[in-house]
Specification:
7-stranded mixed β-sheet, 237 residues, Jelly Rolls, 7-stranded antiparallel β-sheet, single chain, mainly beta
Length: 237
Amino acid sequence: MQVLLHKADTRGHANYGWLDTHHTFSFGNYYHPERVHFGALRVLNDDVVAPGRGFGRHPHDNMEIISIPLEGDLEHRDSMGNRSVIRTGDIQVMSAGTGISHSESNKNNNRPVKFLQIWIIPNQKDVNPRYDQITMDPGNLKNQLHQIVSPYPATQGVWIHQDAWFYRGDLDSGQSITHRLHSPGNGVYLFVLEGSLTIFDYELSDRDGVGITGIDGVRLSANSPAQVLVMEVPMLN
């Protein structure tokens, strides 16, 4: 078993006034040679956008981009004609493929919006761009891991062009749950949104992350009420 522990205060950080952002992996002006990616997981940004502000129209290609709002309302517009607002409990996916441009902005003028921006390296290049979003039922997260991303269109959650699975869970204090990996050789990256968890004797708290390889399962034990994101991804060469 190999463990990569990323405490919250070791992440890259930038504050542009309108955007306060933390980078688990190298992004923008932040570069760390040992934090370029974890397998197919390329970007894990923890963003706070000021009221009424946002990212202007910008392009992407050949990347699976997942947005998970944590607080507030995020407005999305793209070159395919999609215009939507995603809120806490929603999951948004965009397959950039051959090329797409989009903008993201805080829908509200009186409060910030907080969201995770996650990039996954796809297993196919130059696919047709696509957009999708879902709304989770909070009841499905209670003391269990609820699938929100997978490789398969017909299953629960949104799907992406990669053999990756994401889960969300909200655990009560004292509760434990085990995630069994789908494929031998995959790694799992766990990111604590709130609360405190113990994983293989490592204690994690708000915004801590840990990447683990060489296992077939991982047990999460909540030391306090805890919200967690579990990302199982192929370990690319």
